[in-house]
Write a structure and sequence with these properties.
25 helices; alpha+beta; 4-stranded antiparallel sheet; disordered C terminus; 694 residues
Length: 694
């Protein structure tokens, strides 16, 4: 009997262990040649339902057995836990089939690696602060509210007392929406606090202050018993980091502002005089005028980031991000002054009059003069490699790709014709860049003022139509900059979003603009530094700020789940119905001018590495045009992200050199200021007066 009992118990224990053992069966699919559309569907055997699925893909919810939108060729892990606490972990990979999927899958981990460097947070790493985003309150919005809703929401009756502890899902109030009663429910557990009294107005779409004010739609807040970490759908905590690349660029800009005695402010008037041609000397060495050099450099920075990037920044950081964007733009003016002064000082002009300049030259020869020949060569080569990669990617393929996507969205005839679009754009770009910097400068000198004027005029019209919103908008910007909600990451989160957008947009400290400005006709390097400091002002303080104001004035900064360009387009379209078509055209012109400017930047880096002959230049130009077609016709995902990151990486070797040569630039500035006061600079109007008098 005992023998049978032991046998029975053994059988039961084996059965129990077997029943508890979790086994994963995965269906892995790559449905098409389109990148980033793989999916993994799990079927769990054994254990005790329900199951929790912890995916490495942060956008997949904890209760979902299916993870979608996956990068082909990249491994994803999942840990499945049953109700009894048993768990099993496995790793799966969606196989890449198309060549684009192989490229994308190869570059994804490289991009992640670069991101770990560029966006590493040194402050959280040493424990200065906790980057995890915590919320101590959860606000309750009016039921059925959206940023585009019309009508009135009135708090009709409270169903719970103020200060009472409520559970998630409890009915807390009756709200009247345009006369119809709807129930508001608690969206978290905690103590209830009224934000509106019974009979009070929660939100009125005809009240401009309500439209612009951030959070006007909330009727109550629920105080958590303990602060709650905000989570991604997969359960990972959300973080607001302070990226190293932003610190690197902004601290550099602050250092140069102090080192040059606030040249960004005191040199502004003289910069305008130079840009207008007051001191243009036609006999000075160089290939283009001050204004043409400025237009070329501005065309390389003013682009998609000013339209789409700002929309993303304002939707993430709120109206307050605008304030910090402006501050960072003003500081960046000093970085541009330093790098473009050095760009002209260390340029090389050959017997044919062609100019070769930029960070490659001042890093190599400027540091060589300081006894750092080896370091100078290393930094110059590193910069040139990054600049070539950036010119093919962020300055070319990314622009062609995004301009096609945006135009196809407004003009359906383009849909599916990316290759043809790419060929046409390549021909247009080729016609311009074959002629060299003089041809590029002439085109950008015409396109940049026109497209900037159209965009600025459209923005001013939208602001003008909503001018009664000026007070609420300024209040939203000020309050959002200095007392933002925890959901926006607090003041640090908003500040970083603003600084990041400015740094990424105007490229101050990246060194690219120094290549364009080195071709300017001048005998005085600091004069081109003065002209260059106007770039961040135009790009960030004017264009980026106008985009942000359009979003805030129209209330679109409260819209969630909409892409950058689409959000900006909707904001313009809410006032000027046909303007989205104009905006799509402007985006194309922004992209086109960026491509032709970056072709010059990349070519100068190319010739630095491979030689300065005309054949070498033609080889680069042909390769550049091929990448235009590739960018427009193929979705490359991580390849574009990688090449775009190379633009930011250019700032590492560049700013190291700028720090080391900042004293030299300060001395040159003092000498230039002395000559300016003494009237020793070429002065065009005075010369013309002498001619007339004779």
């Amino acid at each position: 009997m005992r023998k049978y009992l032991l046998s029975f118990l053994f059988s039961v224990s084996v059965f129990t262990l077997y029943a508890q053992e979790l086994k994963l069966n995965a269906e892995i699919e790559n449905p098409s040649k389109i990148i980033n559309n793989g999916f993994i569907e799990l079927n769990v055997e054994g254990g005790t339902p329900p199951y929790t699925y912890k995916w490495s893909n942060q956008s997949t919810p904890l209760d979902s057995p299916i993870s979608e939108g996956l990068v082909e060729g990249v491994p994803y892990s999942v840990t499945v836990t049953d109700a009894a606490g048993n768990e099993v972990s496995e790793e799966f990979t969606v196989p890449a089939k198309a060549i684009t999927e192989h490229f994308n899958g190869t570059f994804s981990p490289i991009v992640a690696g670069m991101g770990n460097v560029l966006f590493w947070d040194p402050f959280s790493a040493i424990g200065v602060y906790d980057p995890v985003v915590y919320a101590d309150v959860k606000r309750v919005p009016a039921p059925e509210w959206s940023a585009t809703v019309e009508g009135q929401f009135i708090l009709k009756e409270w169903l719970k007392s103020e200060g009472e502890h409520v559970e998630e899902g409890d009915a807390i109030a009756i709200v009247s929406k345009n006369g119809e009663d709807i129930t508001a429910y608690a969206n978290a557990a905690g103590n209830l606090k009224y934000l509106v009294e019974e009979g009070g107005m929660i939100y009125n779409s005809e009240n401009k202050q309500h439209v612009i004010e951030q959070g006007a739609q909330y009727l109550a807040s629920i105080q958590y018993d303990e602060p709650v970490a905000l989570l991604h759908p997969n359960g990972d905590p959300q973080t607001k980091n302070i990226p190293f690349i932003v610190i690197w660029l902004v601290f550099g800009a602050l250092f140069f502002t102090l080192r040059m005695g606030f040249i960004n402010i005191r040199g502004f008037k003289h910069a305008l005089q130079l840009a207008k041609g007051k001191y243009d000397d036609p006999n000075a060495p160089g290939q283009v005028t001050h204004f043409q050099a400025l237009a070329t450099a501005v065309s390389g920075t003013v682009g998609l980031g000013n339209i789409a990037g700002v929309a993303v920044a304002v939707s993430l950081g709120g109206a307050g991000a605008t304030m910090w964007m402006i501050v960072a733009g003003l500081l960046g003016m000093s970085s541009k002054f330093v790098e473009c002064t050095l760009g002209v000082k260390y340029r090389f002009i050959n017997s044919e009059g062609r100019v070769f300049g930029g960070p490659m030259n001042y890093l190599r020869y400027g540091l060589e003069r300081r006894g750092q020949k080896g370091l100078g060569k290393l930094l110059a080569v590193f910069f040139a490699i990054l600049a070539i990669g950036a010119s093919f990617g962020g300055g070319n393929m990314f622009q062609a790709n995004q301009s096609f996507v945006i135009l196809a969205g407004e003009f359906p005839l383009l849909e599916g014709n990316g290759f043809i679009f790419g060929v046409i754009v390549a021909i247009l770009v080729g016609v311009v860049i074959i002629g060299g910097i003089s041809s590029i400068a002439k085109v950008t000198g015409k396109i940049v003022p026109i497209m900037a004027a159209v965009y600025i005029l459209g923005a001013l019209v939208v602001i003008g139509v909503n001018i009664e919103n000026l007070g609420p908008a300024l209040t939203a910007i000020w309050d959002g900059a200095f007392s933002p909600s925890a959901l926006k990451g607090g003041i640090i989160g908003v500040l970083i979003v603003g600084f990041q957008r400015a740094a990424f947009s105007n490229e101050a400290g990246v060194g690219s603009a120094a290549i364009a400005h080195s071709a300017a006709k001048t005998n005085h390097p600091p004069s081109e530094g003065f002209v260059a400091l106007l770039e961040p002002f135009i790009d960030t303080v004017v264009v980026c700020t106008l985009t942000a104001l359009v979003l805030i004035f129209t209330g679109m900064h409260e819209v969630e789940g909409v892409g950058g360009v689409e959000l900006t387009s909707s904001a313009f379209g809410s006032v000027i119905s046909w303007f989205p078509y104009v905006l799509a055209t402007a985006v194309f012109l922004f992209a086109f001018s960026t491509m032709i400017s970056w072709s010059y930047y990349g070519m100068r880096a190319w010739t630095y590495l491979f030689g300065k002959s005309t054949k070498i230049e033609l080889a680069y130009k042909a390769l550049f045009l091929v990448f235009v077609v590739v960018g427009a016709s193929v979705s490359l995902g991580a390849v574009l992200d990688f090449s775009d990151m190379m633009i930011l990486a250019m700032s590492f070797p560049n700013i190291i050199g700028l720090y080391m040569m900042s004293g030299e630039v300060r001395n040159d500035l003092r000498e230039y200021s002395r000559k300016l006061k003494a009237g020793e600079l070429f002065h065009k109007p005075e010369k013309e007066k002498v001619k007339k008098a004779s």
